[in-house]
Amino acid sequence: MLGEHARPQVPMDKVIAFELEILGSHGMQAYRYPAMMEMIRHGKLKPELLVGKKISLDEAPAALMAMGGFEGIGIGVVTKF
User: Fold this and answer.
1) Is this prediction's pTM over 0.90?
2) Which letter does DSSP use for residue 1 in this model?
3) Is residue 2 predicted with pLDDT exceeding 80?
4) How far is Cα 77 from Cα 60, in angstroms, rounded to an integer?
5) Pseudo-torsion of CA 38, 43, 48, 49, nearest 10°?
6) Residues 6 or more apart whose Cβ sits within 8 Å of residue 28
7) 3-state secondary structure labels for all residues of 19-80
8) Domain residue ranges in the chain
9) Higher pLDDT, 58 or 25
């Protein structure tokens, strides 16, 4: 996030009072994207191995509803619109 959203204020008193969980990912810094893309281009990284299933847009609602019981490997990707 950038600008005024770079450091969001989190009301920790409410997080504690309501026993909330904070989930998220730091991800990867944007300045490292070019190096990652080069690794993909040279076959050192194979992101296609992360795809477990290709689905159509019509199948997406059922796939979302089934996420709670997912026991497979990889992620589902909508490839047919």
Assistant:
1) no
2) -
3) no
4) 9
5) -130
6) 36
7) CCCCCCCCCCCHHHHHHHHHHHHCCCCCHHHHEEEEEEHHHHHHHHHHHHHCCCCCEEEEEE
8) 11-80
9) 58
